[in-house]
Write a structure and sequence with these properties.
Blueprint (H helix, E strand, L loop, with lengths): L10 H5 L17 H9 L2 E8 L4 E6 L4 E6 L6 E7 L2 E5 L2 H8 L8 E3 L7 E8 L12 E4 L7 H8 L7 H13 L3 H4 L7 E9 L6 E4 L8 E6 L3 E7 L19 E7 L24
Antiparallel strand pairs: 1-13, 2-12, 3-11, 3-13, 4-5, 4-9, 4-12, 6-7, 7-11, 8-9, 9-10
Length: 285
């Protein structure tokens, strides 16, 4: 029996059907980037966290503050988790962010929270790699398509017991920050924003690919915190992800997270966005 069925007579016509955008985003709330820019001018640095190579660290950002992730010593990608600081069940929803904005995000686009909240949690306000766009292979930077390198897939594919992949790094960092066991922390670790990572899908097989990140020391991705945030960032063991993403041999470098507070009154009457307005009745009165 053939594994590939014969194409029907109207195969070409079926393939020629034009695509339709699933979620037209022209009615999304528009971030006031001009306001954020003015507030950023007066902002002062209030703290920083240095994320070691092949490890992760947590940080906190109050609503209305800014945080910046910077490459500081060499080309390095980072896996970012974000939660509502006071309710870890509200966390970054990569799938919906991807559906609303696309496979990669940049200035003016947002990281959205999980159901039932579905609200902006962080808005990208600056991206020094914004020039990269989409390359000839379909690759771009800052993806919301990859899940995070993890020990379970490594064990499945290679029988390995590797503990410094991003999933484990994020688990350890969150456990330490909360003062709980890794087993208690792990369920909160979720699909990431792959900061600086250059990725896409192959045209022939549709497989997820990575290539050397264009990031260089001094490049950064900066956000405005829309709600009180707890973040965790892993400096991926793949370094710039040019060859491997769970490796003790790839060149890896630290990442720097800095937090900035705007001057009092700089945001005017800005308010943190409320949770989603859906009534949650689900058709049951």
């Amino acid at each position: 029996m053939s594994s590939t069925p014969a194409a029907p007579a109207d195969a070409a016509a079926r393939r020629a059907v034009k695509p339709v955008i699933c979620y037209p985003n022209d009615t999304l709330p528009v971030p006031d980037l001009a306001l954020y820019s003015r507030a950023r001018e007066s902002a002062v640095k209030t703290g920083e966290v240095r994320v070691p190579p092949r490890d992760a660290a947590c940080f906190e950002v109050p609503a209305g503050h800014f945080f910046r992730i910077t490459s500081i010593e060499g080309p390095q990608v980072g896996d970012l988790n974000l939660w509502n600081k006071t309710d870890l069940s509200e966390r970054f929803y990569s799938g919906k962010t991807r559906a609303l904005h696309g496979t990669h995000i940049t200035t003016g686009e947002r990281m959205w929270t999980s159901f039932p909240h579905l609200r902006p949690m962080a808005t990208v306000v600056a991206d020094t790699l914004g020039w990269y766009g989409i390359d000839e292979f379909g690759g771009s930077v800052h993806d919301v398509i990859g899940t995070r390198c993890d020990p379970y897939t490594g064990n499945l594919l290679a029988g390995s017991q590797y503990h410094h992949c991003c999933h484990s790094n994020l688990t350890r960092a969150l456990a330490d920050h909360l003062g709980v066991s890794p087993a208690e922390a792990e369920p909160h670790v979720h699909d990431v924003l792959n900061v600086f990572m250059c990725t896409g899908f192959t045209r022939g097989t549709g497989q997820y690919f990575m290539k050397a990140s264009p990031v260089r020391p001094g490049d950064y991705l900066e956000f405005f915190s829309e709600i009180d945030l707890l973040g965790s960032l892993s400096a991926c063991p793949g370094g710039d992800c040019s060859a491997e993403h769970s490796s003790d041999t790839a060149a890896c470098y630290p990442l720097l997270v800095e937090v900035f507070a705007p001057a009092e009154g700089a945001l005017g009457d800005w308010k943190s966005p409320p949770p989603n307005g859906y009534d949650r009745s689900h058709g049951r009165g």
